C-alpha cells in the first residue's frame, strides 16, 4: 500500500467550503502517480519506453467531502493484474481514520507508439505488489447507456485539459460533465467509462439523460462516437 497525508487546500474546495469532486479525483490520481514515481515506474520512465497505464474505468463512492483545512490520508494499492489490465483501489480517510471516500479502478497497459494495448511484463507489475480489495459495493465496469438523452452545446478541448500523454486528463472529463449540467447535483457515487482519448482541438458534443436514480452524461465526438460516459448518483 502507498499513502500520503495532506491538508485540504482552499484551491481544492468549492463554494460550499468542501472539497470538490474533481479535487477528490485528483487526490486519487496523484496518489497512484506518486507511487509509480517512487518505485521507478513514473511518467518519465514509461514515456522513455513509450508505454503508459491508461485509466479505463472509475467507480468512486463518497461518504462526505472534507472541509477546507482538514487533515486527510490518501492511499492506493493494486488488487490484481490480468492480461492487459490492472485493478487498483483508492481510499481517503480523515484524521480519526474514518473513511471519506473510496474507489475502484481498472487500467489498461498501452503501447503509446503503436497506439494499442500491450501485455505488461513482470517489471511493470511486480514492483506494485498486490493486496486484497477494499470492502465496498462493486459495480460492473460497463455503464448502461440511457434510452434517450438531450443534446447540449458542444465545446472544444482546451490546452488546460491536456496531460503528459497528450490527451484529455481523466479528471477533466468529469469536470466537463459537471459543467454541462444545468444545476448542481449532490454526488454520492461516480462511475466513468473511458472509451477513447480526446486531444487538443477535438470538439466535445455532450448528451445528458436525467433519470430517477442517476444522471448520465455522454461526451461524444461530432459523429456521435463516445469519448467517455459519466454516471452520477
Distinctive features:
233 residues, alpha+beta, Thiol Ester Dehydrase, Chain A, 2 domains, twelve-stranded antiparallel beta sheet, HotDog_dom_sf
Describe it.
With 233 residues, the protein is an alpha+beta fold. The protein has two domains: 2-128, Hotdog Thioesterase (Thiol Ester Dehydrase, Chain A, Roll), CATH 3.10.129.10; 150-232, Hotdog Thioesterase (Thiol Ester Dehydrase, Chain A), CATH 3.10.129. It has helices spanning 21-38, 43-48, 122-125, 170-180, and strands at residues 2-7, 51-62, 71-82, 85-94, 99-111, 116-117, 150-151, 155-156, 189-194, 203-210, 215-220, 226-232. Strand 3 and strand 4 form a beta hairpin. The longest helix is centred in the N-terminal third of the chain and has 18 residues, at 21-38. The model has no long low-confidence stretch (mean pLDDT 97).
Quick gist of this model?
The protein is α+β, with helices and mostly antiparallel strands.
Q: Could you give a short account of the major beta sheet? A: 12 strands, antiparallel
What is the residue-averaged pLDDT? 97
User: Which stretches are low in confidence, meaning pLDDT under 50 for 5 or more residues running?
Assistant: none
Radius of gyration: 17 Å
**How many helices does DSSP assign?**
4
> Which fold name is given in CATH as the topology of the largest domain?
Thiol Ester Dehydrase, Chain A
Any idea how many domains?
2
Q: What overall form do the CA principal axes indicate?
A: globular
Overall strand count: 12
**What is the terminal-to-terminal distance?**
29 Å
Q: What structural category characterises the helix and strand content?
A: alpha+beta
CATH class of the largest domain: Alpha Beta
Q: Give the amount of beta strand, in percent.
A: 35-45%
Q: Secondary-structure element sequence?
A: EHHEEEEEHEEHEEEE
Specify the helix fraction band. 10-25%
**Any guess at the CATH architecture of the largest domain?**
Roll
CATH homology-level superfamily of the largest domain: Hotdog Thioesterase
Amino acid at each position: 500500500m502507498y499513502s500520503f497525508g495532506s491538508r485540504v487546500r482552499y484551491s481544492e474546495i468549492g463554494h460550499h467550503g468542501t472539497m470538490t469532486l474533481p479535487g477528490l479525483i485528483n487526490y486519487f490520481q496523484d496518489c497512484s502517480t506518486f507511487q509509480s514515481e517512487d518505485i521507478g515506474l513514473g511518467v518519465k520512465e514509461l514515456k522513455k519506453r513509450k508505454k503508459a497505464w491508461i485509466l479505463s474505468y472509475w467507480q468512486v463512492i463518497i461518504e462526505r467531502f472534507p472541509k477546507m483545512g482538514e487533515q486527510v490520508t490518501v492511499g492506493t494499492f493494486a488488487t490484481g493484474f490480468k492480461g492487459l489490465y490492472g485493478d487498483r483501489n483508492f481510499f481517503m480517510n480523515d484524521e480519526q481514520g474514518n473513511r471519506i471516500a473510496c474507489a475502484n479502478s481498472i487500467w489498461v497497459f498501452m503501447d503509446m507508439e503503436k497506439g494499442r494495448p500491450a501485455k505488461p511484463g513482470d517489471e511493470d507489475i511486480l514492483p506494485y505488489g498486490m493486496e486484497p480489495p477494499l470492502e465496498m459495493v462493486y459495480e460492473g465496469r460497463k455503464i448502461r447507456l440511457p434510452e434517450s438523452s438531450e443534446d447540449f452545446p458542444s465545446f472544444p478541448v482546451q490546452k488546460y485539459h491536456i496531460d503528459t500523454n497528450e490527451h484529455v486528463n481523466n479528471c477533466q472529463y468529469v469536470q466537463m460533465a459537471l459543467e454541462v449540467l444545468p444545476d448542481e447535483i449532490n454526488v454520492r457515487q461516480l462511475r466513468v467509462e473511458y472509451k477513447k482519448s480526446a486531444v487538443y482541438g477535438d470538439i466535445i458534443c455532450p448528451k445528458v439523460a436525467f433519470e430517477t436514480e442517476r444522471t448520465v452524461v455522454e461526451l461524444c465526438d461530432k459523429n456521435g462516437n463516445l469519448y467517455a460516459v459519466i454516471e452520477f448518483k
